[in-house]
Amino acid sequence: MSAAPTKPLLLRTLACEDTAGATPIWVMRQAGRYLPEYRELRQKAGSFLALCRDPALASEVTLQPIRRFGFDAAIIFSDILLVPDALGLELGFVDGEGPVLGRPLRTAAAVAALPSFDPARLAHLDEAIARTRAELPAATALIGFTGGAFTLACYMVDGRGGDFWQARRMLHAEPDLFQRIIDANATAIASSLAAQAAAGCDVLMVFDSWAGLAPRGREEELLLNPLRAVMAQLRAAGVAQPVIAFLRNASHLAAAAAATGVACLGVDWQSDLGALSRELGGRVALQGNLDPAVLLTDPATVAREAQRVLAAYAAPAGHVFNLGHGVDKETPVANMEALVAAVREGSGAARG
Ligand code: 1CP
């Protein structure tokens, strides 16, 4: 009798299965500017957006950190702002500043004119996913992603990152208008995630990175209902992949978010992983939460702090090691190597 094919460690962990102490590791923004091979390819491509839109290059950039560090998951190289771009908001990238939407949503007329999301506009992403899945080892999971409805709305109204004053003004002054954007986003998110699943992603992640900016008392309408809507639309469409939700700086919502049907919650580095794992462990997996600044120190400090995170997690299963936010571009490669080694040693020999 042949052995059953081994389910990737990340998938077993997301299902809160017993992994005999083995903890999977991947890192948010693991493909990016701290890697010399990324900088080289980005220069060749000419721009960040050219990299995203070329399936062969996007796939290559996705695979770079897997070859170098052997992470348990790859995350497809793309950006949360490609969905607003596909909705006609005209994404550009200003060197030294970052992504900018050329046609931000400021008026009722602009919101009314928003088209429905057509996943065919991101066909290059599907192709990058298919190519990447074909290249990846079977044990390495592939993650597809979008932004969360609120985070996307923040960028769509302001047009760029920062304090999102225009979006925050609109949600108080014109709550119905802001809500229309949120609702449209939830549908677009579900549609994009379903397309990414169909193209070959094993896991789906929603980055609601600016969840912490939602005013207290408005979390249901701005954060939780849209997440529930995304989950309902995915499941209605027959998409069975586990979903990781990252509501950054909103750990007061963790119990409610855990009840939406997601498999896992991302935990930012300001939150208490130990307390959350005692409260929610077994019900959902938790992903996190090393402070990315630790990766700017030295290998010994990295190893010590990685152990601290591993030790903080208090449930018997369901810990996905990650940072509490994305890796910084000044991170030395040697520190990332030290992190992976520390997590592999610290989480026991029993892997695979
Ligand atoms: O080369 C460069 O200068 C581009 C930098 C860069 C990269 C590497 C951007 C611009 N996006 C990305 C890729 C990216 N973005 C990934 C790839 C996969 C991986 O993790 O390796 C992912 C998952 C994202 C997601 C993303 N984009 C988020 C959510 C996660 C987070 O960090 O909070 C957000 C908020 C964005 C918007 C965005 N895209 C890029 C930048 C610099 C920003 C932030 C803009 C701002 O707020 O000012």
From TrEMBL:
Q: How does it assemble?
A: Homodimer.
Q: Which UniProt keywords apply?
A: Cytoplasm, Decarboxylase, Lyase, Porphyrin biosynthesis
Binding of substrate: at which residues? R29, Q30, A31, G32, R33, D79, Y155, S209, H325
UniProt keyword Methyltransferase present: no
Q: Which GO terms describe its molecular function?
A: uroporphyrinogen decarboxylase activity
Task: Fetch the PANTHER family from UniProt.
Answer: METHYLTETRAHYDROFOLATE:HOMOCYSTEINE METHYLTRANSFERASE RELATED (PTHR21091), UROPORPHYRINOGEN DECARBOXYLASE (PTHR21091:SF169)
Q: What is the enzyme's class at the highest EC level?
A: lyase
**NCBIfam families the UniProt entry points to:** hemE
What is its pathway?
Porphyrin-containing compound metabolism; protoporphyrin-IX biosynthesis; coproporphyrinogen-III from 5-aminolevulinate: step 4/4
| One of the protein's GO biological processes | protoporphyrinogen IX biosynthetic process from glutamate
Site feature location: Transition state stabilizer: D79
Its recorded name reads: Uroporphyrinogen decarboxylase
SUPFAM superfamilies with a match to the protein in the record: UROD/MetE-like
What are the leading ranks of the lineage? Answer: Bacteria, Pseudomonadati, Pseudomonadota, Gammaproteobacteria, Candidatus Tethybacterales
Q: Tell me which InterPro entries the record gives.
A: UROD/MetE-like_sf (IPR038071), Uroporphyrinogen_deCO2ase_HemE (IPR006361), Uroporphyrinogen_deCOase (IPR000257)
Family that this chain belongs to: Belongs to the uroporphyrinogen decarboxylase family.
Query: Which compartment or compartments is the protein found in?
Result: Cytoplasm
Gene it is expressed from: hemE
Look up the EC number in the record and give it: 4.1.1.37
Instruction: Name all Uroporphyrinogen decarboxylase (URO-D) domain ranges.
Output: 24-33, 143-159
HAMAP family linked: URO_D (MF_00218)
